[in-house]
Amino acid sequence: MDQLFNRKYIIQGLFVLIALILLGKLFYMQVISDKYFLSANNNALRKIYTYPARGVILDRHNNVLAQNQPTYDLLVTPNQVKPFDTLSLCKIIGIDMVQFREKFHKAIVQSRYQETIFQKLIPVETYASLQEKMFNYRGFSVRKRTIRYYPDSIAAQFLGFMREVNPTDIEKHAGYYKPGDYIGKSGIEREYETVLRGTKGVTNMLYNAHNVAQGSYANGKLDSLAISGDQLTSTIDSRIQKLGEELLANKVGSIVAIEPSTGEILAFVSSPGYDPNRLVGNKFSPNYQEIYGNPNRPFVVRPIQGGYSPGSAFKPLDALIALSEGVVDPNTTFNCPGYYIAGNRRFKCEHVDGNISLRRGIARSCNTYFYNIFAKLMTKNGSSYAKQHITYEDWQNKVRKFGIGDTLGIDFPGEKAYKLYRAADYDKLHRGKYWGNTSIMSVAIGQGEINTTPLQMANIMAIIANRGYYLKPHVVKAIGNGKSIAPRYKEKHSVGIDPRYFEPVIDGMEDAVNQSWGTATESRLQNIIMCGKTGTVQNSRGKNHSVFIGFAPRDNPKIAIAVIVENGGYGGAYAAPIASYLTEKYLTDSLSGRRINGSTIEMYKEANLLPVFTTKPLIKPLSKPDSLKKTDSLKKTIPVKTKVAQNQPNKLAIKPKDNATSK
Amino acid sequence: MQHQSNRFFFNVDWITILIYVALCAIGFLNIYSVKFNPDKSEAFSFAAEYGKQLIFIITGLVLGLSILLFDAKFFSVFAPVIYGVTIVLLLIVLVIGRNVGGNQAWIPIGSFRLQPSEFAKFGTALLLARYISSFNLKLNSLKPILISAAIIILPMTLIMLQPDAGSMLVFLSFMFPLYREGLPGNLLIIFWGAVLLFILNLFLSPYLLISAILLIGALFIYTNRKRQQKMISIGIITLIAVAYLFVAKFMFNNVLQPHQRTRIELILGLSKDNKGAGYNVIQSKIAIGSGQATGRGFLQGTQTKLKYVPAQSTDFIFSTIGEEWGFVGCFVVIGLYIFLLLRIVNIAERQRSSFSRIYGYCIACIFFFHVFINIGMAIGIMPVIGIPLPFISYGGSSLWSFTILLFIFLKLDSNRMGFI
Lengths: 663, 420
Fold this sequence. Notes:
The complex is a heterodimer of chains A (about 675) and B (about 425). In chain A, a hairpin with a 5-residue loop joins β8 and β9. With about 675 residues, chain A is α+β, with helices and mostly antiparallel strands. Chain B has about 425 residues and is mostly helical. Chain B has two domains: about 325 residues, no CATH class; about 90 residues, no CATH class. Helices cover about 70% and strands about 5% of the residues of chain B. Chain B has 19 helices and three strands. Chain B is globular and about 75 Å long. At the A-B interface, α1 and β1 of A face α10, α15, α17 and α18 of B.
């Protein structure tokens, strides 16, 4: 035995000492104190969750866009239930005996001893009559919670909807959600879920054998209060949002308006829309399926998911790059004989202008002018394939700086990135064969391999309005009281073009709206200089899309806007008038009631441009059997068409009209 | 020769095996009780947890007895290999492991899940025993202490990456065998003193703590006022302790990541009701307190039946014992454990080979740590660290690991007359 042998006693002593401490504490807990003793009859300690009020969503002028309304869940603890008048309960909550048995059985399967939801989302009116009779229904209890209410019924896709959590959500959020809780599933509700939801409160409540609460355990020392969600101030202006939705009623399209100096989004319209109040409470499921089944896909958030060729709206950008590269100056003229010949192809122009300068070229939206510019740009370093390859790569990098070809990083879920071709992509497209400016000429006028979201188009206008920079577009102005937004929305992003190159381009855009020879005269405003550009976008889905982008006023611009009306024809036909009305409303807070192209604003609102589905809708309604299968093709069109009409939000009255009304 | 080989079973310490079987049986009964459902009277099922546990116990026993058939030299010779294998397993689990409850601690093998951190314990115990027993090593110089520490810290680090704080902390128990083998006691005092200060630092106000340290330092200096040398060293230690407070606070607030901070706070029970840890403890305490002196009786525990205590067959199995068997049952269980621990230490001290002795201390301290933390957690005097109660908690990996730990020792002991 060595001299360390004695340490054995120290270690053994430690074992015994700790054992005595454990036994001492156990003796105290089990024999001496009755603090921890609960008799077999009253041993139920349950966690009761109190749900916080969800944060309210406001518009930029503090008008309420989304608030809360109370609703109630009926809970049951199966082993506490005594025989009672089940029929009366069924009557109150509006179910039949079969459903009652089903629900009760389900509750038993879940747990005999713990509360489970029996009937959820009981409206206030039902709750009033239920409450009077509750004493009859032993084992049942009611829990209050809140659901959303949208006072103006606007901005459905913008706000998004809430839905019961699924197992994936529960797992992802590390135990915050319990089955039956609600979570923001789309739009702002989703993006700002953690801010809006607040924190659930917990009460460790003691119950006796009769399931009567005996008070909080340990005097509430372990309880916590529910903390309400933070209020969100969005950047939306509900006046123009509402007007925009009305103007796009019965049309497929999108409107995005941005405040250039801040990047705040003023309007975020996606049409067709739906009444957000339809996706609330116990009406959720049937309405969700119906909206989901609409062939015009109201759930697509077109401002950030719709991909459109910018068309002529791309021309200002062309001009800016050409000016900054020095291949043209504002006085450079090109001859427009009504077409442009590139290689062995002939591209049409809409008009014959003769010698035309930059300013007039923009105002007249002269294709020839921009084909010439583009050819000059692409061949400025030489016209060999290798040189043009490098020049194109350089050019598209400059275009990317305008926020095209990738997401803009808006604080909103689901933004899509549309591809802008790199030189290598064209190599692939042409399968290794040489290509040059003549093969990709359509890009010059915003057609072909170029796609942008409406948000990106509006952002380009914000860049021009700011003379060369933008702030990332975003939808939330303030979180809670004084909590500021993410710093990335306060950074200026320069596009690397000197401000002096912007004025000539803006001159052209001013003329486009304000001179008789302009293409966007429909958007002209009194006393306000609007600058803009129309686009008429060819597409594979039928009639051209009507596009307008612009900003106003010319000096110190307050609003940059992009309007796309699918299958609306010329830019001046629908997009420009709609932009005009919205801008007028935003800048003057009134509408003068003027006619544009002879039509009143009401006529624009009522115009119906919805596509007629002669074939099956793109997406089948979820659960409805295809009863139309065996009917002939004529009959097929009719029910689908009427269905489309029925799907419109109720408040936008539908007046059946022909497809191309009002012009 | 024949006499020697037949001694395999004769020399085995049957009393220890008896305690082992008793603890396993207690475990089985209580797991049965937790899973027993008064609503549905069902036949005994091997698919239920108690059925599986019975399989684990039987296979564990077979495993243990087959360990007795090994040559006792095997364990000391192959210690580095076994240690290496457990380290490799710990690495594998980080790559292909299944994530259960936030810890990536399990390797799925068919329908079973292997938990390498359980097996890392005996790998580490074996290598530590082998290393310290070699070349008449003295554990009072720096190099052997550092090497021993490295052997312990390597698996700890890998387990922390899973991250499984509970299993990681178990490795701290290796400090006691080191102490037995000559690690200066002051080192232990300094280590635990630093840990204690770190924890107090989080609970108490710094001013209070600093004044307390200064006061104690002054007191010691006063009592040693005749010996200048000692006064100076006490003064230096006091100042170091105060400086340590600041450094620790700074490290905690500025160097650690927020999630690491939360983890520490969670281990110490500082953050309230995180993932319901506080709730588990209340429920467990109520269950145990409701057992009173003699308990509610087998299968009669209502807290147990109503599933108010989460993880009741694994980490909180002691609450069932407390509720159904009362203080008497708790006394018996703790008594069995203490008897087992003291017996292991006594057996260890009678070994001729220092390898066997060190290994014995290692497993005694591992068992001790598990028992102390697990029961302490169930009665609310220890933070909630999810580690199993040896031989009683539900779970194949832990039961087998404890069985292997124990039976290797029994084998070494049965061979105590030979040289290893």
